[in-house]
Design a protein that fits this description.
Elements (H helix, E strand, L loop, with lengths): L9 H13 L4 H8 L10 H5 L20 H12 L6
Protein name: CopG family transcriptional regulator
Organism: Nostoc favosum CHAB5714
Length: 87
C-alpha cells in the first residue's frame, strides 16, 4: 500500500496523538476509523428518509397494554435512567 503524508499544525497533531493514544490506536488508524465510508451520509436527509415516510400510521391509537420482553424492559430501564418514562 502506498503511503501519503499530510501536514498538520503542531497543536492539531498533539491533540490527534493524545486522543489516539487514549484509544490505543495510531493516529492514522484513528483518522481511518473516524472517516465515513458510507456514501449515504453525503445524500440529503430528506432523500435518506424518503423510504420511511408512511411506515408508521400515526392515526391509530396506541395500545393500552404491551407485551413485556427482556429486551423491551432493558430499553425501558435505560430510558428511565435518563428520566424518560413509559406512558
Amino acid at each position: 500500500m502506498r503511503e501519503h503524508f499530510i501536514s498538520l499544525p503542531e497543536d492539531v497533531y498533539c491533540h490527534l496523538l493524545a486522543v489516539a493514544e487514549t484509544e490505543g490506536v495510531t493516529p492514522a488508524d484513528w483518522i481511518a476509523a473516524h472517516l465515513s465510508s458510507d456514501v449515504d451520509q453525503q445524500r440529503p436527509l430528506a432523500v435518506l428518509l424518503s423510504d420511511l415516510i408512511g411506515s408508521i400510521n400515526s392515526q391509530t391509537e396506541t395500545p393500552s397494554s404491551y407485551e413485556k420482553t427482556v429486551f423491551g424492559e432493558a430499553i425501558a430501564s435505560k430510558l428511565a435512567k435518563q428520566g424518560i418514562r413509559r406512558p
